[in-house]
Amino acid sequence: MKYNQVGWFEIPVRDMDRASKFYEAVFGRTISLHEISGFQMGWFPGDHSSPGATGSLVKHDMYTPSDTAGVLIYFSCEDLSQELNKVDAAGGQIMQGKTEIGGGHGFMAIVRDSEGNRLGLHSTI
To answer: Fewer Cβ atoms within 10 Å of its own Cβ: the N or the C terminal residue of the chain?
Structure first.
């Protein structure tokens, strides 16, 4: 395969300012805000020459945040304990703490963001 299967993702939000602050606080990255054809978007920084996909926060009437439905996106972390330690203060909630996956596949956790979406965290340590 010449490319990663996932090329882009979009995370629904109700409040773009609150959501961008949550992701900036937890991951230490700047979200770039844009308005495109009636969509409010908060783009995650990305390097298209590096592995992995990038994506956007999206506010629009046809997007609905959910912590039970839809696709579950995992964010790669060096040590997900660092991000977990920031979730509550940033307005989110830990749904499943750091859990060993087994078989040498590292660790995972599930959190709810400030908008009510669930997202996964993954690290090898």
So the answer is: N
